[in-house]
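Q: Please design a sequence for this.
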């Protein structure tokens, strides 16, 4: 093992020790301005609460990987389509995906 190889673990330890200190300095900082718009009306809050009770995101909640692919057209490779894939791991390196076109 060379001297260069032996210093990598020390750098990793130093980085791991300094990361919490650097992140703790961020704290909660309020933005200097408030976003435009009005506060939600009671009607909107009631509709959102009803939608949350009636609708679930169960299948999509399981998919915790977001992949974006640019797929060229077979007859015209200069034309590409953007596809968003939501996926989750099944076994080993296999993933089950759902594709949404935008």
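A: Design:
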């Amino acid at each position: 093992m060379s001297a260069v190889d032996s210093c990598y673990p020390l750098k990793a330890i130093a980085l791991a020790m300094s990361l919490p200190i650097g992140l703790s300095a961020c704290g909660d900082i309020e933005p200097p301005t408030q976003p435009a718009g009005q506060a939600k009306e009671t009607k909107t809050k009631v509709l959102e609460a009803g939608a949350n009770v009636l609708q679930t995101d169960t299948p999509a909640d399981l998919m915790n990987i977001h992949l974006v692919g640019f797929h060229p057209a077979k007859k015209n490779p200069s034309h590409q389509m953007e596809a968003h894939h939501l996926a989750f791991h099944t076994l080993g390196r296999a993933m089950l995906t759902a594709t949404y076109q935008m």
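Q: Thanks. Anything notable?
A: Residues 3-24 form the longest helix (22 residues). The two ends are 51 Å apart (CA to CA).
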